[in-house]
Amino acid sequence: MANETGLCTGNISYQREPCEGMANETGLCTVIPPCLTSEVFDQNYLSVDSPMVVYTSAKVIIEALAQNLCFTNTSIFYSWELFKRMTDNNGTVTEIKENRTSSSFYFSLQPHDLKPGLYRLHVKIGFPEDFTHWMGESMYLKIEHPPPNTFIKGGTGRYIGEGSVTLDGKSGSYSLKNGPGDPSGLVFDWACLNFVTNDIYKLLSFKIDPLFVFLEQQNVEKWYDTDFLQEVNEKLIRINASTLYTHVQSLDNATGKLTDDYNVTIRERYKTSYVAGQDDGSSGYDSYVNNNYTNYFYYVIETRPFQDFFHIRYMKELYKDAQPKIFKEIVLPDDNEVVRNEYNELVNDLLYEGSSFVEHLMDFLDLLSDSYLTMLSLYNFEGVPIEDLTTNSPFLIVLDDWLRTIKDICDDLELMNSTINTYASHVDIMEKGLQLTDYIKMDDFLQLYITKTEKKFEHFYLYFLRDFYNIILRINQVDWNRLEMIEKNYTNWLYGLVDDNRCSHFNPKTDGYAELQVQRQDVVNGVGYLIYLRAYFEGSYGYFVQHAQTIDGDPPELELECRLNCMKKTATTSILSLVAVCPSCSLSELTNAKFSWNFKHFPIDTRKVADYPNWQDMMLSDTNNRRFVMKAGLAQNQGYIIEATITLPGGRLSKSMWIVTTDYLPYGGSCRVERSTHFADQWQVTASGWKDEGFRDRRDKRIDWKEHLNYRIDQVNSEDSSLLYYGCK
Description:
Its main location: membrane. This is PKD/REJ-like domain-containing protein. Keywords: Membrane, Repeat, Transmembrane, Transmembrane helix. There is one protein chain. Helix content is about 25%, strand content about 25%. A hairpin with a 5-residue loop joins strand 9 and strand 10 (about 135-145). It is of the alpha+beta class. About 25% of the residues are buried. It has an eight-stranded mixed beta sheet. Among the domains are: about 30-145, Immunoglobulin-like (Sandwich); about 225-265 and about 305-480, no CATH class.
């Protein structure tokens, strides 16, 4: 049986079977059958509030993590079931079993046949075939459509002339469920803004989030909607009242080197080459990087021999007077014990299970960074004839002060997160040092050293606390109410800017097309247009912005078409290919037309166009024909502009531009290789903590961990490599 009500004592249930549960607690115990390990699914996805996100465009294979410890004698059997969870208006949840079962060791999920929504996947694992011994577990899946591919013919940037301009958002848009060329099911919305720019690069620098243009921004969470600052204030109250804080201040202000009697040093890590078949249990693994994968390795932590601690003064004094002393009166804890207790309380609050401070810190930092980028983008409107944006205007002075303050705060929050993560990476060894000083009754554990290099030591406890306290104090000194008020004022200004600059001669249609009437005066004034397209498909939205700059001379219609790896996310490990097309050109014009290409850097945050040196060296095609083919190898999370120019006989000229944004690599995780605890001739590979932003523009630690990822494990020797595993966790 897998679920029993009984008393758990340690790891043994009332039926003397291995179990998982609170010690000495009567309740529902998970009894682990013989021959099986306990973990079935990734712990992240066991709650209905934290499902794995699976796109309908993906094919997912889910395997149970439980291992068969008796594989030579016992066959393990599986029974998989999938349930659709439905919630009515009263909050009542019902489950409908899908006609999808499996008896294999994995469950193949093809979500394009399923309706978007929340699902529960349950597996029953056991033996023999009638499941006399079994255990079961459920994980949750959220199936949703990825954003539809949304595109306006002509590309990200283009030249247009006087007259009627037809905008086609239908031909290049599609849902990933239906695929390219099939826009069925899409619902289109258009918007248009105009500014006097006289320069397409100035126009390209403008970034007004579609959420402002389509009035969706009101529902977006902001940093001032969170409780993080309240948490900081509560911590500050406890810090100011603590003996630990006073002690840290005193030590940090002390001059000179702390006494050598407390110089307990601990080697942080070491690394040696691993040779197959020659492992002595102490080696690490050398890292290597190729074009496709970065390999991560585990390093062994080593502590110094216990004898090294006997030079401590207290041990010498204890040796002289080893007789215990018995006190009859009540003994209050001394300062050192109070400091130790307050330290343990702080570490538990920051690092251990149930603590949400680090999570709230990262949420707050992400939201604050979003606000920073939005406010930073207002600088790009400088030079445009807008009254508030004249040089040295109060508007820009206040904005500059706000940006500097927020940048400093973000740096502090990044430092706080780094400080906590650095401590967390050493937490095991630091706890051992703390236990040791408690065991030998050594005063002032804060003066312990940790070895960083052969010749550099750090007072790790002291530095950790000092940095953490200082950042908390700086955060609390910020006038957050003022920053909130300024941001809200500038946000309202941005809404006003959008409303004041909507196009007056723009005619959107519901079929995916729109018409823009460009007046002669618009060309004379150098008006540029931001044209927004929003496509909706069964709960998912996609957006595209075209930057159209007016010029004299009746520019021909020039379009760029993606051939390979140039859509919303560009892979850094693949070639990139586009082709230039002039649908309005005659055959004779095309025959004598001259094409040329340019490639520029376009930073995502500043949107300031810059030259990309020697980009021609990356080309696989000539730079003077209709095709553009570039080698793999662009940097991750960067923006670039691919610019095509066509010159027709007679001098008519036009440009079209395509912005590509390279993808992030998965981040934040680790891979560990170690000997199996169950089989001497096997190795165990553990991947954990990996995150990916999926189809989103930016990383967001709050949700990136939910993305479905595939893992590849290769065995590499000096001559070749062989695939050991490919699939999801």
